[in-house]
Amino acid sequence: MRGEMEFDRERVLPMLDTGFRQMVPHNAALNLQVLDCGPGMVVLSLPWAEHLVGNPETGVLHGGAISSLLDACGGASVFLKMMAPTPIATLDLRIDYLKPATPRRDVIAKAECYKLGRNVAFVRGLAYHDTTDDPIAALSATFMLSTKGAAVVPRSRG
Amino acid sequence: MSALRERLAEAKRTGDWQPLVDAIPYAKWLGLHLDLGSGEPICTMKFDAKLVGNASIPALHGGTLGGLLESAAVFQLLWASESIVLPKVVNVTVDYLRSARPVDTYATGEIFKQGRRVTTVRAVAWQEDRSKPVASANAHFLVFPEE
Asked: Where exactly are the structural domains of chain A?
């Protein structure tokens, strides 16, 4: 039921990528793209954009943009773990900023929902350019499950 | 002194912080305004459709609240520091307390502990009712003196 055995990546990936921006205006505003997904796992890209810069002298992205990317990525990983249109809401998230993002480069984020409880889902993730071995930021987050409101694909906050 | 440091010095001198806020592209894009009228820096995130996370409730995207809280913490640090410093964020923990509705959101920071190298700032965000926060954050910054 939880999709571990019959995860159809070819079907889920385009659906997720489209719904991700259509249902979540802020994901569209950031132009987030879904690059890969699996059971309880998702890889997103945040294309570099001038208006997301935090320090105009260096061109380094603002922590808030990385925070939105990792939050969206974490929420999507929970959705992919449940494989059911249940509404969820971020309970808390911690982001460690490990090194500045390289100016003018897209940031990739990978998150994994490693524990799905009855009420709470636990997620960890990393933001990076080329490989998770050289991370820009690390995420640790929890999400409440079955919150009120209609479910969005892939994530909701409410 | 860098242009950003000059803007910071100017803000401290004139009390008008908005040119500094507007010099930060992401802060401007997020629609942040810094108001010092009450004697403490209060950061407003003007509602805009692009801030919405869940269109069905509707509710603001958690990431926008993270960005607002982190910014409020930074501005508190800049405002409270006597010297011209540019803090470097180490990490931030955000608690989401209530669904944030599609209206203006306010945030302010409080310096909790100022160490020799690390400063701990707490920030809280609310909407109509300050006694009902929608999110709070705890952030650590490395603070370097003038280079």
From this structure: 9-145
CATH, domain range A9-145: 3.10.129.10
Kindly state whether A61 is in contact with chain B, defined as any CB-CB distance less than 8 angstroms.
Answer: yes
Average pLDDT score over residue span B61-68: 96
Distance (Å, whole) CA A79 – CA A67: 18
Contact A149 B54 (CB under 8 A): yes
Cβ of B70 and A64 within 8 Å?
Answer: yes
Residues 72 through 101 of chain A touching chain B, CB cutoff 8 Å:
72, 75, 87, 89-97
Q: Which amino acid is residue A21, in one-letter code?
A: R
Give me the CATH number covering residue B85. 3.10.129.10
| Pairing between β-strand A33-38 and β-strand A135-145 as defined by DSSP bridges | unpaired
User: Pick from A71, A21, A109: which is nearest to B95 by CA?
Assistant: A71
CA distance A99 to A88: 30
Residue pLDDT, tens place only, A70-124: 999 999 999 999 977 788 899 999 999 999 999 999 999 999 999 999 999 999 9
Measure CB to CB from residue A23 to each of B55, B64, B70 and give the nearest one.
Answer: B55
**CA of B91: which chain A residue's CA is closest?**
A96
ipTM given for this complex: 0.93
